[in-house]
Predict the structure.
Amino acid sequence: MPIPQVKALTFDVFGTVVDWRGSIIKEGEVFSRSHHIQADWAAFADRWRAGYAPSMNEVRTGTLPWMTIDQLHRRVLDRLLEEFKITGLTEADKEHLNRIWHRLHPWPDSVDGLTRLKKKYIVATLSNGNVALLTNMAKFGGLPWDVILSAELAKHYKPDPEAYLTAASLLGLRPWEVMMVAAHKNDLHAAAKTGMRTAFVERPLEFGPDRKVDVSREESIDVHGKDFVDLAHQLGT
């Protein structure tokens, strides 16, 4: 049933809305063929994603000045190219690879589910991805956002409370009028501490078929959906 007072849904994006791992693997394989290089792109994708949280934490703790996710992704990419012994790339090649994150494919239910939810609620991103990245991703994948919100606007990365509170403020809403939607429980727990409502959506294949993902139900989370279409049904759209 719809939750009273909720007027907007804010969505984590990487892994929740889009398949970052599968997208990187597919583009990497195309890149290998066109550039005549060998690489284990599944391992590369996993290592690239693994560098995401430590890089953000360096910003969050003041070790690094504010940097966008594009900039942090590039720092990790440069290290990975050395680690995987991928050489001979031009600056344009490296920039093309880094912008794979702008071209991530939605999960099969994402566009349909968001379109249904949009009929009743404001639907917005609330991602650590920067605004340009999220905008380009929306154009690429046909994601029907009402508005692009990002941790970049707060200059605080999730799970800092400022990221969630800034999003609610920019929407002109109180935290409890906003529901955070994510496939990651730590994101939802942090959002709940600011007063937001929460919805968990299962993405069991986010890290590939061989890695187990916790999709168990938790009483502290307001709604648990199998996917976005199921979430839309539960929220009355």
